[in-house]
Every structure is written in structure tokens, then in C-alpha cells.
Amino acid sequence: MKIPDWKKYQEDTAEFFRSLGLEAKTDYAIEGVRTKHDIDVFVVSKLVGLNAIWLIECKYWARPVSKLHVLALREIVSDVGADKGIILSENGFQKGAVEAAKFTNIEVNSLAKLRGQLETVVYSIRLRNLAARVTACEKKYWSLPKSKRIEFGLRPPGGIGFGYNGGSVIDACRNFLFEAATNDFPFSTGLYFDMPDMLGVRVPEVLKSNQDVNNWIEPMVEILEKKIETVPIASHD
């Protein structure tokens, strides 16, 4: 059975937020102070260590959304204590709806526009978080004597080219993050291309976006963090 267009719009919206690394649920029931509410898409963001709750209403209609729907979502957001409410419509909003959303925590938008806006913001935040994790790994890595780095598989006995190398992982991450910060896409991964033994992952020859950079750096950092965690604290200088 074909999924109804309005339902597909909800699912596409939820899937978009999931693609950004956020938690998203459709047809979600939530208790407010005064009553229970049914939300089209319920989103939780944990990007900066704090939970932010967004309530998304998907209006797959042939007509523009009216002011009444903006006011209704404002009430729900207030009752639930959510951080933000978003109404999505591909056929626009009446003038009164746009005015009612101004200077509030309600956003009126379309899924098409939201994709471009949020992808840029979310991946910028995620790359900043990754940069901080790389810095933390770098500090811990170089605090270890060379003998301990070899013993716990953080670098090969013979140097570069003979197995996993945490120093090379850090250098690769720094390199990719720098290119992303300058927005110099696409860019070549250079000597890090196809070096899974050294980096722990098989990096492609070219990275084309912030999402690409995030998706390749994150597993590299996770592997390095786990390896460092296996080293006894007493081993650090």
C-alpha cells in the first residue's frame, strides 16, 4: 500500500533530522502541564551536551498555513516546555502566520529550505565538537612514553607505514578539519587516502562536504579514544 503524501512528508522530515545525528520520532504523544499533545515529529538534539526539544508540525497542504496554526503551536510549545516549534509547509504561509511567528520560538519554513539551513549549522557544531575531541586525544597521546604507545597499539614499532598510528590519525583529523573550516570543497585526502592500517578506517580519495568530513573523522576519533582508554592512567606523564 502506498504511503499517503502527508505521512511521507512527516517521515521525510524525521529522516532528515536523523541524518543530522538528532533523535526524531513521528506521531509522538507528549504530556504537557495542561494536557497531552500529539506531535507530528518530535526531535531531541544532544549536540552540545544539553537536550534541546523541538516540536515539528508538518502541513502537507495545498493552501498556505494560517495564523491560527502558528498560535496553536506556540501554546503547545509553552505547555510542553519545548525549546522550539517548527511548522513546515511546502505551499507557504499566510502573512498573519509569518507575523505571528516573528520574535518567538516558533519557526515557519519548508523542508526544502530547512535542509540547507540546518545542515550547515549542525555540521559546523559537530565539527567543532570533533576538533575539541581531537585536541583532548592529542594531549593524552603525547603524554604517553613511546614505549607505552607501542605496547598499547597506538603506534607501530617501526614508525609510519607499518600499522595503526595515533599520531597520523591526529594529523589527518587536523588536516581535514582545516580544509572544512576554509570551506575548500571538494578536497583531496592526499597521503591519507586508502590507508586503513594506519588510520583505522579507509578514507576516500576526496571529501566533498562538512558531512563527509564529519562522517570520516568521527570513527577515526572514536577508535583513537578507545585505544587511549585502554592505557592505565599511571602510564601518562
From TrEMBL:
GO terms for biological process: DNA restriction-modification system. This is Restriction endonuclease type IV Mrr domain-containing protein. Residues 5-108 form the Restriction endonuclease type IV Mrr domain. The lineage of its organism: Bacteria, Pseudomonadati, Pseudomonadota, Alphaproteobacteria, Hyphomicrobiales. GO terms for molecular function: DNA binding; endonuclease activity. InterPro entries: Restrct_endonuc-II-like, Restrct_endonuc_IV_Mrr, tRNA_endonuc-like_dom_sf. It comes from Pseudovibrio axinellae. It comes from the Bacteria.
